[in-house]
Amino acid sequence: QVQLEESGGETVQAGGSLSLSCVVSGDTISNYCMGWFRQAPGKEREGVVSFRVDTRTTYSDSVKGRFTISKDFPNNILYLQMNNLKTDDTAIYYCAARRCGEVTYNVFGQGTQVTVSP
After folding, report:
1. Residue 88 has what pLDDT?
2. For residue 35, what are the β-bridge partners?
3. Within a 13 Å sphere around the CA of 34, how many CA atoms are in the beta-carbon half?
4. HEC string of 66-115?
5. Measured between alpha carbons, how far is 6 from 1 in angstroms, rounded to an integer?
6. The dihedral of CA 100, 101, 107, 112: what is its sign?
C-alpha cells in the first residue's frame, strides 16, 4: 500500500510563496494518478491539482497560474509550488493517490497546514 507524507506548510503573508512536498513510499509515483487536495475551515475538501504521468496536469480554476505541481521521480517526491498566495488559500493541504483505473482518490496523507495572513 502506498503511503504519503506531506510537509512544508506554514504561515505566510498574502502575495508570498510556499512549496509543499509529498514523500511517496511503498510504491512509485509513476504507478499512480496523484493529486493535491485542500480543506479550508468549515468547507469540504476540494481538488487543487491532479496529475498522471501519461496525460496532462489539471489545475482548479482557483489556483491556475499560481500553483505548479512538479515531480522528482528518482526520489519519489511530489511538490506543489504555490505563488501569489491569497488568504482564501488557507487550508490543510493533502497529497493524494489512486490507481489510475479507479475513479476516486483513496489514499491521503495526514495533511499540512497552510495559513495565509492578510
Report:
1. 96
2. 50, 96
3. 30
4. CEEEEEECCCCEEEEEECCCCHHHCEEEEEEEECCCCCCCCEECCCEEEE
5. 17
6. positive
- 42-101 pLDDT, tens digit each: 999 999 998 876 677 889 999 999 999 998 989 999 999 999 999 999 999 999 999 988
Set of cell numbers at residue 25 = 513510499
**Region class of 8: left (phi > 0), else alpha (psi between -120 and 50), else beta:** left
pLDDT of the residue at 56: 76
Residue with cell 483513496: 106
Strands 11-13 and 112-117: parallel
